[in-house]
Design goal:
Length: 167
């Protein structure tokens, strides 16, 4: 397919930490976009206590996508649409795991549309085995000494293990 203008997509989230589910969505998105900004949100609307600092999350994303030059790890504060406009990214990627994700995602996509009418949200579905996976579950299992190896990439696993062994 020949496109006149390369498509830059933005995949926003907390990524605390990046899971194999996130990674699956990010790699799938490169089938429809030329470049992907994996964007760690500094200020979530709802305050969540983080396990990793934003800088640590960015380092892990960079490490996991070392093989993929089309992916860039970035962070942003404030409105997603403002950041997307600055970076000339007109496509937002979000992952849909289950029906439970849908209502919130629909509201957010429609709000973003209202805030900037040049943005389109694209929902991608992960491989079935990742449907149950979330960063919060990974944090919880790891905090209870469970093995999260199947759910995160090796650099993330090493970082999670370091976090909990230093506590
Ligand atoms: P948030 O803090 O908004 O929940 P996350 O960092 O958890 O953000 O997730 C960012 C995006 O990735 C969301 O669209 C979320 O639905 C999606 N996502 C998270 N985990 C998975 C997964 N296992 N499979 C597919 N999509 C996922």
């Amino acid at each position: 397919m020949n496109r006149a203008t390369p498509i830059t997509a933005i995949y926003p989230g907390s990524f605390d930490p990046l899971t194999r589910g996130h990674e699956d969505i990010a790699r799938r998105s490169l089938r429809i976009a030329d470049r992907l900004l994996v964007a760690v949100a500094y200020t979530a609307t709802h305050v969540k206590k983080g396990l990793f600092s934003v800088e640590e999350r960015l380092e892990l994303i960079t490490e996991v996508f070392r093989d993929e030059p089309r992916v860039e790890a970035v962070s942003f504060q404030g409105l997603l649409v403002d950041f997307a406009r600055q970076r000339d990214a007109h496509v937002v990627i979000r992952g849909l795991r289950a029906v439970s994700d849908f209502e919130y995602e629909l509201q957010m996509a429609q709000m973003n549309q209202k805030l900037w009418d040049e943005i389109e949200t694209v929902f991608l579905v992960p491989e079935g085995e990742y449907s149950f996976l979330s960063s919060s579950l990974v944090r919880e299992v790891a905090s209870l000494n469970g093995d999260v190896g199947p759910f995160v990439s090796p650099p993330v696993l090493a970082a999670v293990n370091r976090k909990f062994s230093s506590r």
